[in-house]
Write a structure and sequence with these properties.
The structure is a single chain. This protein has 367 residues and is an alpha+beta fold. It has helices at residues 38-48, 75-81, 118-125, 141-155, 193-208, 236-245, 266-269, 342-365; strands spanning 5-6, 11-16, 22-28, 65-67, 71-72, 85-86, 91-96, 160-168, 171-172, 215-222, 250-255, 273-276, 279-282, 290-291, 294-295, 300-306, 316-319, 325-328. A five-stranded antiparallel sheet has the order 1-2-3-7-4, with helices on one face. The mean pLDDT is 92.
Length: 367
C-alpha cells in the first residue's frame, strides 16, 4: 500500500491498523532546536481520545504517545530550553492499542459494510483487515493529531488554531450565539450553548434508534502572515482541501464562503480593502484568508462535511465477498456522530499544512 505520506518539507508518514499492536507516525523535516516532549503531544491526543462521553465510541484507549526518536535532552539543553528539543532528524511517534475487540467484527469477515472501505479494499488489494477497518479506520487519525502537535511547535505561539462543530444532522449553530470559549464547556465542541443542548437530545435519540448523524466542522487559523502558499499547483487552499478530504468520513470542504459564494454578486463576494493608518485592512473574508493560492494575512477559515458514521446497528442491505445478498448490522463500539472527534483531527491537518507552508515559504524567500 502506497500513499501513506503527506507534506513536502514538513512530511508525515502514518502507520498501523485499528486492531494491530500499535499505530503511529514518522515526522520528517522538523527544524532542530524546538521544545518538544510527550506531554506537549499528549495534550492534543487527549482531546481526540475515545470514550470521553456517551456521544462518542466507548472504546477505552488511553492513547499514550511515546517519542522514539528525533529529540535530545541533557543538562545544557535543559538549562537553555527547559527540556528536550528536536534534533532535526526524523521524529518517530508510537501509540499502543490496548482495547481491541476483534471478535466484534467476526460476522462481517465476508460481508461488505455499506459506506465502508470493505468492498473497495477487496477490489484493489484482494484482501482486507476486517477488524475495525484496519488501515481505513478512523483510529489512524490519532497519529495525525500527534503529528499536528509537532507542527504547532513549528508555527509558534503567534498562530492560533481552533475548531468547532457548527452543525450536527439538520441542526446548525446560530452565528449570533458564537462563543469560542463555549467549545470547551460541552462534549460537542459547540460554540453555541443553546444548540449544544439540542444536540444532546438529538444524538441520544439517534443513538437509541441504532443510527448515526453527520456533522460540519469549522477550523480557523489566526495570525498566519500574508504570503504563504504558492500560485497554480502549490495553492494553500488546494492543499488545505486535499488534507481535509483525506480525513476519514470527510465528503466536502469549503474555504471561506465556499459554495455560498456561488450565490453572491461580484460586489458582495469581493473582499474590499482600506488602509487603517499604515496597515491594509480587509472589510470581509469571503475568500477564507487565501487569494490566488496565497495567504492574505486574514484568518484561514475551512469547513468540512463529515458523513454519518457508517457503522450502525440498523440493518442495511449488502452483499458478501462471494456475491450473495445479505442484510447486515455492525456490532461493536461506534460514534453516533464521528464528526465530534474530527475537530482535533481537522486542527492537526490545518497545523501540518501551515507548518509545511511556513517552511516552504522560508526556503523560497528566506523569510
Amino acid at each position: 500500500m502506497s500513499h501513506n505520506s503527506f507534506g513536502h518539507l514538513f512530511r508525515v508518514t502514518t502507520w498501523g491498523e485499528s486492531h494491530g499492536p500499535a499505530l503511529g507516525c514518522v515526522v520528517d523535516g522538523c527544524p532542530p532546536g524546538l521544545r518538544l516532549d510527550s506531554g506537549m503531544i499528549q495534550a492534543f491526543l487527549d482531546l481526540r481520545r475515545p470514550g470521553t462521553s456517551r456521544f462518542v465510541t466507548q472504546r477505552q484507549e488511553p492513547d499514550q504517545v511515546r517519542i522514539l526518536s528525533g529529540i535530545f535532552e541533557d543538562d545544557r539543553i535543559r538549562a537553555r530550553f527547559g527540556g528536550a528539543v528536536t534534533t532535526g532528524t526524523p521524529i518517530s511517534l508510537m501509540i499502543e492499542n490496548v482495547d481491541q475487540r476483534s471478535k466484534d467484527y467476526s460476522e462481517i469477515r465476508d460481508r461488505y459494510r455499506p459506506g465502508h472501505a470493505d468492498q473497495t479494499y477487496d477490489a484493489k488489494y484482494g484482501l482486507r483487515d476486517y477488524r475495525g477497518g484496519g488501515r481505513s479506520s478512523a483510529r489512524e487519525t490519532a497519529a495525525r493529531v500527534a503529528a499536528g502537535a509537532v507542527a504547532r511547535q513549528i508555527l509558534g505561539e503567534g498562530i492560533t488554531l481552533r475548531g468547532a462543530v457548527v452543525q450536527i444532522g439538520p441542526h446548525m449553530v446560530d452565528p449570533e450565539n458564537w462563543d469560542w470559549e463555549e467549545t470547551a464547556r460541552n462534549p460537542f465542541w459547540c460554540p453555541d450553548a443553546n444548540m449544544a443542548k439540542s444536540w444532546e437530545t438529538y444524538l441520544d435519540e439517534t443513538r437509541k434508534a441504532g443510527s448515526s448523524a453527520g456533522a460540519i466542522v469549522e477550523v480557523h487559523a489566526t495570525g498566519v502572515p500574508a504570503g504563504w502558499g504558492a500560485p497554480i499547483y502549490g495553492k494553500l487552499d488546494s492543499e488545505l482541501a486535499s488534507a481535509m478530504m483525506s480525513i476519514n468520513a470527510a465528503k466536502g470542504v469549503e474555504i471561506g464562503a465556499g459554495f455560498a459564494a456561488a450565490g453572491f454578486s461580484g460586489e458582495e463576494n469581493a473582499d474590499e480593502m482600506r488602509m487603517q493608518g499604515d496597515q491594509l485592512a480587509f472589510l470581509s473574508n469571503n475568500n477564507g484568508g487565501v487569494a490566488g493560492g496565497i495567504s492574505t494575512g486574514q484568518d484561514i477559515v475551512v469547513r468540512l462535511a463529515i458523513k454519518p458514521t457508517s457503522s450502525i446497528l440498523t440493518e442495511t442491505k449488502s452483499v458478501t465477498s462471494t456475491g450473495e445478498n445479505v442484510d447486515i448490522r455492525t456490532k461493536g463500539r461506534h460514534d453516533p456522530c464521528v464528526g465530534i472527534r474530527a475537530v482535533p483531527v481537522a486542527e492537526a491537518m490545518l497545523a501540518c499544512v501551515l507548518a509545511d507552508a511556513k517552511l516552504r515559504h522560508r526556503g523560497q524567500t528566506g523569510s
